[in-house]
Amino acid sequence: VSDPAQLAKDALIAIASARTDAELEGISVEYLGRKNGRISSLLSGIGQMAPAERAALGMAANEAKRAIEAGITNRRAELEGARLADIAETEAIDITLPGPPLGRGHVHVLTQVRRQIETVLESLGYQVELGPEVETEWYNFEALNIPAGHPARENWDSFYFTPELLLRAHTSPVQIRAMQRLKEPPIYIITPGRCYRRDAPEATRLPYFSQVEGLAVDKGLTVGDMKGTLLYMIQSLYGRERTVRVRPSYFPFTEPSFEFDVTCGICGGAGCKSCRHKGWLEVGGCGMVHPQVLRNGGIDPEQWNGYAWGFGIERMAMLKHNVEDIRLFYESDFRFLEQF
Amino acid sequence: MKISYDWLSDFVDLKGIGAKEAADVLTRLGVEVESLAIVDLSAIVIGKVLEQVPHPKSRNPLWVHQVDLGDRVEQIIAGAPNAVPGSLVPVALPGTTVPNGKLVKDLNIAGYRARGMLCSAEELLLGDDHSGILILDSGRPGDPLTSVIPSQAIMDAEVTSNRPDCMGHLGVARELAAGLDRPLTRDFMPAFTGTADPPGRDLVEVSIDEPDLCSRYIGGVIRGVKVGPSPDWLRRRLRACGVRPINNIVDIGNYVMLEYAQPLHVFDLAKLFGGGRGKAIPEIRVRRARAGEKLLCLDGVERELTSDMLVIADGRQPVALAGIIGGEDSAVTSETVDVLLEAANFSGPSVRQTARLIGLRTEASARFEKGLPAELALAGARRAASLIAELAGGTVHRDWADVYPRPQEPVRVRLRPALVDEVLGTHVPLLESESILKRLNFHVRVLDDGEWDVLPPVFRLDVTIPEDLVEEVGRVHGYDRIEPTLPGRRRDRWSPSLPSVDRRLDSVREVLAGAGFNETWSPALVSGRLLEGLRISAQALRVSNALSDDMDTLRTSLVPSLVNVVALNRDRGRSDARAYEIAAAFLSPVGDKTVQPDEPLRLAAVATAGATAESGRQAFYAMKSVLDACVAALGAPACTYDRASAELFHPGRCAAVVMEGRQLGYLGELLTTVSAGARVEGRLVALEIDVEPLLAASRTPRAQALHKFPAIERDLAVVVEETVAAASLESAINEAGGPLLAQARAFDEYRGAQVPEGHKSVAFALTFRSPERTLTDAEVDKVMAEVRLGLEKRHRARFRE
Prior knowledge:
The complex is a heterodimer. Chain A is 41% helix and 19% strand. Chain A is an alpha+beta fold. Chain A has a seven-stranded mixed sheet with strand order 1-5-6-10-9-8-7, with helices on both faces. Chain A has a three-stranded antiparallel sheet with strand order 2-4-3. In chain A, strand 7 and strand 8 form a beta hairpin. Chain A is elongated. The two termini of chain A are 76 Å apart. The mean pLDDT of chain A is 93. In chain B, helix 4 packs across helix 5 and helix 5 packs antiparallel against helix 8. Chain B is elongated.
């Protein structure tokens, strides 16, 4: 056959009856092969032809080539469509059946919350500092301006081993140790860790719990800086719609002293049952570091000042995840731990 | 503390300020109002009882009253007998809901109509007295009850321990007045003094043996009082604050305490004795109790006293426990005529200690514990004396005994006024700062250099440094008005942000989570007896004042806590459990429990296995894989495992975990006694290692070039005597394998057919590889022959096809 149009017709018939990709590939080689393909062969004598004939043949050959190529592409698509339609039926599975249990373990919710808190404060330049859980009287009380006989001591009823040795009632001793170790401000630290107070276990308190305290010592720090830091922390953890308020309170180691509250997440501050109609939830304590405490840490209060704050990790986790009984965190019931 | 809104309005004009708003202002000032109870009495009316007869038919004692309600008379039935004819009583008519929530209905009781209810103080939430109908002093039948008793608003507030002056209504009112910028209408020091002769100090002899524990003792003499019930309004206020009215004299003492925060005590002067023979006048001596002395207290309990306790004694014996409770024998009774009014100042720590020793905390001790100013005693005494004169008709003698061995030192504070703005981070005008301090009764004198010389009022012992004054200004100015900012200035010093220990351990947590382990946070305080039973108590620290014996000792190992976790979850339906914990163990040096213990941070894990020896064996190896993966995740060098024995662990299945020659801890199967002790059936495997050396050995992974040429794998089954460890075989293989042997790993252990008695077959997978070329089988065969030879020589090994 020497007519490109006829060749194309033959090819399209073959293409239409092809059943596989391989057959189509064979047809492609047979007709379109660069050396021995039937279109190429047709053009082998083109050199001897008159220019007008040559042009006509060339054009016809190109047309035939395009037609064959298009035919192959279309047929390939048809075949693929048919194949998909086929497996859609023959290989169909019940996608509503569940997968096998993964058996993954869970990182403790308090670890998760502690991690979030650390991450947020690290982004402000605070460093994590750790310290011993068994502390001396001096670090736990005296250095923090709470001498023996101080009426505030009853807020930190502690477990003692000897008259000098006790389980720390807060992570504040770590602040003193950090100031003594770092010596020169600026100091921006947080002190996560376990604490102990002699309170009988109940739904809202335990004799053991965990705190994160923060301490900033620098030049010219203000109550405004402290408020901003707390607000940044709370909004980073709970969302930008939350606000913070500080209320005057009393701690021997800060002056002025405050408690800080967060707007209730359920009513948004309007007052509801879960915030006991206050609109606010108590989170922790804070204040400007008492000059004597700075001195006890080896820092000159004439040159530097600071602010500090502290709160319970459990309390933060309870607010965040709507946990109503603090004992769940330490009971280790997997049905609880695996919810987070 | 309970605060009555109505009482506050005695001292500050609260027009236009409702109870809710007053509570909010107080909270913002630092007197945190936790709750506010509003008692609405507007639906209750006043009735006058005309007739009272016993219910003729009821089996229970009931009384039928005819009650005049102004425009009509109704029949009302009550169980209490005290609404005798002529009484004015609060009446709730049918359809009314009384303040305690009860809905009053029209009833028929055994044939008699009951058209309402006569109310008790408790039902009206005016106190907890439910013994009878509340009898009113005054009022007109038919008028609303609020014409004689205003609706009540009671705040429950938390007063911080530095502000004992706010443990009285006057102190709270002063805060409120400052916050509202309204005048306080009562001076701190009442002007009242007695006038009667002879001078009070000639009627009683007062001495203080312990001036460190009692810095002041005022004994005021009032003669000819008429003891009887207090007036309504006074009883009502006491009840609202949770204090039970007793008689006018005692009630006035309590009333003034609730008003001025100064606890008072009143003795029957006739029951106080003098000291020596022939001495006529009664003696008051403030001294330590003597061993063996006893005091029958006002609560009816006789208490043994010790020399740690400060008492008020007369010439013969203790008559009161200083600052805590009075004695029964010298108490005011209905027969009392002359009284001694005590207003004293006792040391806080001493009162607290005694209150703890006897296990009794009273309104008085709660105030003294905080450390009261001695100047307050005189103010309280004057106020009480004036009320006694007014309400009980006594004659107050002049010139009371006032022994004051440790006069209160005045405190002055120098304030650089710019400090206010510097600390608060906002601008408070100087005039406002000064005005605030003055409203709080501070005296301010501006010095030539511009600094302020500030004199706090005598009742504010908490103000001693300039920062205290900043707080006073700040809290009244309003902390809400301070804009939040973040600290920031150009810094030339900083600390690099290095990951915390906890963040570095997150890669371990990832491995453990992937392996199905749940993380736990268990209490570090455990049962000392449990640790003793497990023989891991030698280094344990025991709490001297434990709450209970199941948490009296710091754990020396995390493993028992995790075994308990397995037991708890088994009890709650989870038979397979894997748990881990990262926390400190507490190891005190043996024999010295007075120094701070070591607190190594530990990683411990426990997993359940089946009941058979084989399942325990498999779980052991699974636990090794978990630990190896944790170590690899930290980039630390691989651990080796040495046969070991340790408490808690199975003697044949315990490995010491060693890294770079240092022992980190143990891994193994737990003794069945350990698991059975926690009621866990089946076997448990566990590991417990020190985290710090592991972190210290952790390295940043360095990328290795990927292999270019294919490896050749060969298996080798080595038959050796039982005692030869796989690790020894592995090192023999590595030694003989030369540079072409890339890795040898044991993957199976076999006993049985083809393996002689007392022997085992250990299968190794060997990987051969060259970085330069593709190896030929012939090359590998040659090395394999060397390996066999080495194993034969070293371990008399044979080989299985």
